[in-house]
Design goal:
This is Gfo/Idh/MocA family oxidoreductase. Residues 140-251 form the GFO/IDH/MocA-like oxidoreductase domain. There is one protein chain. By secondary structure, the chain is of the alpha/beta class. It has two domains: 8-131 and 301-314, NAD(P)-binding Rossmann-like Domain (Rossmann fold, 3-Layer(aba) Sandwich); 134-295 and 325-370, Dihydrodipicolinate Reductase, domain 2 (2-Layer Sandwich). It contains 14 helices and 14 strands. It has helices at 17-29, 44-54, 63-70, 84-93, 108-116, 136-147, 177-180, 184-187, 190-200, 278-282, 299-312, 320-339, 353-356, 363-370; strands at residues 8-13, 34-40, 58-60, 74-77, 97-100, 126-128, 153-163, 203-211, 222-229, 234-240, 242-254, 257-263, 272-276, 343-344. The strands form two sheets. The protein has an eight-stranded mixed beta sheet. Helix 6 packs parallel to helix 9 and helix 9 (190-200) packs across helix 12 (320-339). The protein is globular, with a radius of gyration of 21 Å.
Length: 371
């Protein structure tokens, strides 16, 4: 245990690749800060195999039974997206904190329903896996923005250009509104969009276009958008699953510097580039913009921050409004692409159909817009 604190009891819901490849290793890296007591999965054979491999004693095929028997402090949700809300609500109602994989929910309505089940004061709270916020490069840039040392943000680029072959979409829940919630705007680019918005703040309006160009999917396979931020800066967003040279690329142009990040599924300091403006370079201040420690983005580093928040009894980052920004932008992008025109953030209220589903309640209209 850490100091005099007992370990945080953790249960993992879902035992597929993201659980076994990312979350269980991240939990193991926490040492005696945590005690992984249980795994739950609808597939009994899979949960037994994962539990055997990682030394987890509790094995369940029913989430409610697991919650009742184990009373975990933290539940990590690693299911397909359509099961996120149900698992999160059940865990919160049982008194457990929640850390859920992306996308947070299938809609803003689902997200807000989860928030309604959170506790007051010291929790429990739900937060979401947006690990790219937590590497040292992003944290250093965030401090510069808060201190104003780079000048005002003016222009941003947020590109998630990935490649998924046709076989990828043969998994039954992929590429369907009712199970994945959307296409690359929802399930892939949301990581980079979250990082951009966590740095630059809330958006005010978006104009978007989407298409299904080359994959057998009911959702889009490519999207683009121009986003105006409340600060007045402009952000260009592209999400693609059709790009053979895969990259995740973010660029932020401030008055005094350009800051770029190019990576694929995770970064360290070598993936960042800082270019001072000519007047800033002459002033000799460029070196101070570089990160001085090298902490890669990872599930492990976000998990450590979450455990810290739990021990302090405060809402973790990437939860509440802070975890909602990117999902809200995605809803605005779909509304703009399917109905046309510019969407204001304030338009996405419970009275709007795109608050309740990413296709606005009309899958046929969405299909027509994407062709």
């Amino acid at each position: 245990m850490t100091g005099s604190r007992p370990p945080i009891r953790v249960a993992v819901v879902g035992s597929g690749a993201i659980a076994t490849g990312r979350h269980l290793p991240a939990l193991a890296a926490m040492g005696d800060r945590v005690d992984v007591t249980a795994l739950a999965d609808l597939d009994g054979a899979r949960v037994e195999a994962a539990a055997d491999e990682h030394g987890v004693p509790g094995r369940y095929t029913d989430v409610d039974a697991m919650l009742a028997a184990e009373s975990p402090d933290l539940v990590i949700v690693c299911t397909p997206p359509s099961a996120h809300k149900g698992a999160a609500v059940a865990a919160l109602d049982a008194g457990a904190w929640v850390w859920c994989e992306k996308p947070p929910a299938l809609s803003l309505a689902e997200y807000d329903e989860v928030v309604a089940h959170e506790g007051g004061g010291t929790g429990p709270f739900a937060s979401y896996v947006f690990q790219h916020r937590f590497g040292s490069g992003a944290e250093r840039l965030r401090r510069h923005i808060a201190e104003g040392t780079l000048g005002r943000p003016l222009v941003g680029v947020c590109h998630t250009l990935w490649y998924r072959d046709p076989a990828y979409f043969e998994v039954p829940w992929r590429g369907r509104w009712e199970t994945e919630g959307g296409g690359p705007s929802m399930g892939h680019g949301i990581h980079q969009m979250d990082l951009a918005l966590s740095l630059l703040g809330d958006w005010s309006e978006v104009t978007a276009s989407m298409s299904t160009l080359a994959r057998s999917t009911r959702t889009e396979d490519v999207s683009s958008a121009i986003v105006r931020l409340e600060s007045g800066a402009t952000l260009s967003v592209v999400n693609s699953l059709l790009s053979p040279r895969e990259t995740s690329y973010l660029r932020f142009d401030f008055e005094d510097a350009t800051v770029e990040l190019e990576h694929l599924y995770g970064y360290d300091n070598t993936h960042w580039r800082w270019t001072p403006a000519p007047h800033a370079a002459r002033a000799g201040s460029g070196a101070s913009w570089q990160p001085q420690e090298d902490v890669p983005s990872s599930h492990r580093i976000q998990l450590a921050a979450l455990l810290d928040a739990m021990e302090r009894g405060e809402r973790p980052r990437a939860g509440g409004h802070d975890g909602r920004r990117a999902l809200e932008l995605v809803a605005g992008m779909y509304r703009s692409a399917f109905l046309g025109g510019t969407v204001r953030r304030q338009d996405l209220t419970p009275d709007d159909s795109f608050y309740h589903s990413m296709h606005g309640g009309d899958a046929a209209r969405a299909a027509a817009a994407l062709t």
